[in-house]
């Protein structure tokens, strides 16, 4: 097998493509021949030693992937050789093969292709857990999605629309705003032309007829957080999803009082570990929605696994719309 090996987490340039022995699965594991692996923001942080999870060295990055089971370990009875699966295990994806915990593998129904499957679990699980579980989104409410043209942003738009909400999508270019409208957003805000903080707040006010959004989905953080929170509706829920812009913002807590609003943390990874039954039920419903055509990952482009460093550079340029997927 071949894999991108991180022996020194100083950044993307330190990754090397190496030939390694193909391992045999141990108890509770499966060996997967990887057909596709998606690039997520944590995949960048982890090779820079900036992610909250720091795997022992050396490791193979690539949190999310899909492929075909080649072998099963002792005790694995619900999966079989030749079966198509997707998996989000945190590492191992940027390779030709990997060992994965069988418990984390999602069997793929007929017609669920590897590229879509590799781009599915993280963004839809995060966005469903945020909107439907943590925010208790109701039909007829208004959702503002920040960073709306990215992976989790596009998933949030689709889930909110499927739930009957009105969606306002905020993104950094007209092209990205057009993408958001094409997948269901009712209105868009280009925050390059509606400058922070005043222009951005004015645009939110105009898009919500002065009421403000009931739910704000924020995977961006940084300078957007305070003006967005100041614009929230009475009893609004502000979903803290991530900090793609870099800085972790500070908010004056009196804003929660004045707005009767909630700051709500979203940590899907821990939810999946702490509440496995609820997570499994959620994933089954998401797979059903995919089959019904209600949701479908937006794929920016596919690139050969050997082009991983170029893919990281593309992601770092902030030009990605939806998900980047590496293929073998």
Automatic annotation (TrEMBL):
Keyword Lipid biosynthesis found: no
InterPro entries: ADH-like_C, ADH-like_N, ER, GroES-like_sf, NAD(P)-bd_dom_sf, Quin_OxRdtase/zeta-crystal_CS, Zn-ADH-like_protein
A Pfam family assignment: ADH_zinc_N
EC numbers, comma separated: 2.3.1.41
Keyword Acyltransferase: yes
Class of enzymatic activity (EC top level): transferase
Keywords: Acyltransferase, Transferase
GO molecular function terms attached to this record: 3-oxoacyl-[acyl-carrier-protein] synthase activity; oxidoreductase activity; zinc ion binding
Domain Enoyl reductase (ER): 11-326
Protein name according to UniProt: Phthiocerol synthesis polyketide synthase type I PpsC
Organism of provenance: Variovorax paradoxus
The encoding gene: ppsC4
């Amino acid at each position: 097998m071949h894999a991108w090996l991180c022996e020194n987490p100083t950044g993307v340039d330190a990754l090397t493509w190496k030939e390694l022995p193909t391992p045999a699965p141990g108890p509770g594991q499966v060996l997967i021949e990887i057909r596709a692996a998606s690039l997520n923001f944590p995949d960048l942080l982890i090779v820079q030693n900036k992610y909250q999870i720091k795997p022992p060295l050396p490791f193979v990055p690539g949190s999310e992937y899909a492929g075909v089971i080649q072998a099963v370990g002792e005790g694995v009875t619900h999966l079989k050789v030749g079966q198509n699966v997707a998996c989000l295990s945190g590492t191992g994806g940027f390779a030709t093969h990997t060992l994965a915990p069988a418990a984390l593998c999602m069997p793929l129904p007929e017609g669920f292709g590897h590229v879509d499957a590799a781009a599915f679990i993280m963004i839809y699980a995060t966005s469903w857990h945020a909107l439907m579980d943590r925010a208790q989104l109701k039909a007829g409410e208004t959702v503002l999605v920040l960073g709306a043209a990215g992976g989790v942003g596009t998933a949030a738009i689709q889930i909110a629309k499927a739930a009957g909400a009105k969606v306002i999508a905020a993104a950094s270019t007209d092209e990205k705003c057009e993408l958001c409208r094409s997948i269901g957003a009712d209105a868009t805000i280009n925050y390059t032309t509606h400058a922070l903080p005043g222009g951005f707040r004015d645009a939110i006010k105009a898009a919500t007829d002065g009421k403000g959004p009931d739910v704000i989905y924020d995977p961006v953080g940084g300078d957007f957080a305070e003006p967005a929170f100041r614009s929230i509706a009475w009893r609004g829920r502000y979903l803290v999803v991530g900090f793609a812009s870099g800085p972790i913002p500070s908010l004056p807590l009196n804003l929660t009082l004045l707005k009767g609003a909630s700051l709500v943390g979203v940590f899907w990874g821990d939810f999946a570990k702490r509440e496995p039954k609820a997570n499994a039920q959620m994933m089954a419903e998401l797979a059903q929605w995919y089959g019904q055509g209600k949701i479908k990952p937006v794929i920016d482009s596919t690139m050969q696994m050997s082009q991983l460093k170029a893919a990281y550079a593309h992601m770092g340029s902030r030009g990605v719309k939806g998900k980047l997927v590496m293929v073998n």
